[in-house]
Amino acid sequence: MTDSALPVAPDWFRQQDMGGGLTLIVEPHVDVLMRANIWHLRGRDHDLLIDGGLGVAPLRPALPGLFAGRDTVALATHTHADHIGAIHEFEQRWVHPVEAASLATPRPGSLISDDIPAEARQRFLAAGYPPLGPALVTAVPHAGYDLRSYALQGAAPTRLIEAGETVDLGDRRFRVLHVPGHSPGSIALFEEATGTLFAGDVIYDGPLLYRGPGMDIADYISSFALLKSLPVTVVHAGHDDSFGKARLDAIIDAYLARWRAEGLVEG
Ligand SMILES: [Zn+2]
User: Fold this and answer.
1) Does the first or last residue of the chain, that is N or C, have fewer Cβ atoms within 10 Å of its Cβ?
2) Is residue 138 situated within a structural domain?
3) Alpha-carbon gap, residue 106 to 115, rounded angstroms
C-alpha cells in the first residue's frame, strides 16, 4: 500500500495522568490488536517505564516532560513487538532471562498486515479481535514515513529480573512475579503497600491470546492462580482499561470456563 493513503499524526503518543505519579501512554493510531499500554511511573531514585510500545516513532524525544533530565529504567513485561519498541532508547533495560535474547535480537516485525501469516491472523480473529485493516497503523508519524522502513530495534538487557526480586524506585517497591502463559518470560510487578499490579499481557480486559508460539494453557492456569491469590486493588495491564480485583477474578473464571468448554483443561 502507499503510505500517502494514511494521514499524518505528528502527536504519535497520547498520555493520560493516572494520578500518584503514574502516566499511561498509548499509540492511538495503532490497530487495537497491537495497541499496548506503556506505563510510566515517577520514582524517588529513578523512574520506571513498563513496556515500550510498537516502535513506530521514538518515544523519549516525543515526551520530554516525562523523560528529560530523568533517570529512567525501561522494563519489558515480555518481548512481543508491541511491548518493546522503545526499550532500546533507554540506558537501563530489564527483562526476564527467558526473553533476554528476543529483547537483544527481536524478530524484524512489519506494519503491513499481509506480512502476518494467515494462520496467525486466523488466531487473532478466533480470540475475538476484529479483522485487521491493510496496515497495523491508521496513520503515520510524519510525512514521507515509509511503512516498509519499520523495524524493531534490539538492545541487550542490562539486568535480568526473576521471580521474587524487587524493583525498588526508592519510595515504591514492586515484587517481580513470573507469570508465563502468554509468553514464557512474562513478568508482572506487584506493590504490596497499595495492591497495585502491573500485569503485562498475562491478563487484560480484552481478548486474551492463548494459542500461538510461546503460549501455554498450563502456564496460564498456574499464573492465574498466583494472580488470584494476591490482595490486588488495581490492575494496570498490557492492553485495555485498568480494573479491580472483582474484574480480575471474573476474567480469570471466564477463561478457565472457556478452556474447559474447548477441551483444553480437564475437569
Ligand atoms: Zn504480548
Assistant:
1) C
2) yes
3) 16
